[in-house]
Amino acid sequence: MSKHAHTVLKSLLSRASTDALTEPAPKGEELETILSAVMRAPDHGKLRPWRLVVVKGEARAKLADKIVASMKRLNPDADAKKIEKRHKRFSSMPMTIVLGMHLRPDDKIPLLEQELAVGAAGMNLLNALHAAGFGAVWVTGDVAYDPVLAEELGFPAPHALAGFFFVGTPEKKDHEVKRRPVAPYVAEWDGEPVSFKADKD
Length: 201
Prior knowledge:
Blueprint: H1 3-14, E1 21-22, H2 28-36, E2 50-55, H3 59-74, H4 80-92, E3 95-101, H5 111-131, E4 135-139, H6 147-152, E5 160-170
Helix pairs in contact: 3-4
């Protein structure tokens, strides 16, 4: 294995989600390079169904207000502490990147494949942020499926949200989560239906 390949694999194997984030978030040319990694996601039909909305500075509080409004719209009896916690999260993260799905229901490419391409774009974004020394976590929750919020952010139906990425510098430089072994999730096919140890635990 080449030194370059080893470095890339080490980066992939050490990535872990974290919302323990502080300033700075990426900016300028560095941010553009990170976001460019999204464009390398597998994309059947070259539809590029992903869209990215960067939220920073004073706009964070505005997004937090939209999130709270969505929570109350979806559940008028939403817990006040949960509302306060989510408002604080969205307004205090160094940066939030909204991942949107620009979907084409009438295209020959099935909707599922379009959505999978957006998911792959999100993973590329997480890996690029990690490789550049930043931390991130991809969150959804009930508000991610609110069509009103999606439209307010620029994604009217049939388009939708794929989630929110909190982005910044990890508070712990050595942050790493212990990974499960891969063997229980892998099977070699020999012509008969496979089974996985992970499904038996």
